[in-house]
Amino acid sequence: MQGKNRSVYRGWHNKTSLPVKIIIVLLIVLVITLAALLFKDRISKWFEPDVTYPDTSVTGQADTKKTAESVPDGTEEEQKIKLTRISASDYDSSRGPLIIVNAQNAYVFKDGDKELLTDLYTSDHRGFSLASVSESLLPEAYSALYRMTGKYADMYGFCPIMVTSSYRDYESQEQYYKNNATSEQNEKYYEKPGYSDHHTGYSFDVKIYDEKGDSYSYVRYGMIKAEWITEHYMDYGFIIRYPANKAAVTGIDGEGNHFRYVGLPHSAYITENLLCLEEYENMIRRHGKDDPFEYEYNGIVYLVWYCSAEDGYIDVPLADDFTVSGDNCGGFIVTASKMP
Ligand SMILES: [Zn+2]
Question: Least buried of 29, 147, 285, 311, by fewest C-beta within 10 Å?
């Protein structure tokens, strides 16, 4: 075998003249070049990322170009989406489901706030009951509550969720505070007027009110009497705004029955990672458009990033599937989604 191999080797060297060798090599090069030209599009797709930042952003082209070039290979680039830049004046940083209202960040009251609310008593509330006839929420929060408690009622025939307190304007919070924060000891349980999450229109307190007419605290009995709600509220965009172990961060102790609408995927990430809203948004603020926070939930990949209101613009995806919410702390949070 060795001898035969050697003779083949010698044959190429000895029997083929130099001009023929050159022609053969040139032909091979020509074939490769032609093949490369013919399949150029297909080959380049192997190396190109699926999506890139465009050169067509309204302003700041240099910025987006730099981002595209600085990515070393296709793997990181795959999570990026095409962006454009819109004026921040189209949005209000004190509005949206991700606004934070706490002792440091007062709610910004505006004329016409109440006109946006959905009255719960006169609206369909098949899945939940009401402690009073004067309860209201913003449509997004009402819709999520309606779908959640309606689903529960469909499955079990009855939903024991009772809304005991929802939207409060300044005056009603003032009254509420006066009636309840009667001593230095219990002040910590109640927000001063202007600083209550109930001003947002995205929150409500609940109680368990069963078919027999007996009522229970959600915190104590929610796990048993409304177990499905406790397991699924995050799927409807809700969080427990004041987890018991987060009083040092939220400033509010003992309101484990206070639901707050923030929307997906935020509700899922906050709940699964046992965070409070303040902690979550502090984390999001470290993620700009070039380094979005990525989170996959129920088969959808979400990208979330922060834009400061001071910049005067917001970087948003070119596609329609995004939302912008103010954080009520001087910025905006952009949420985009894409299929994995
Ligand atoms: Zn509350």
Answer: 29
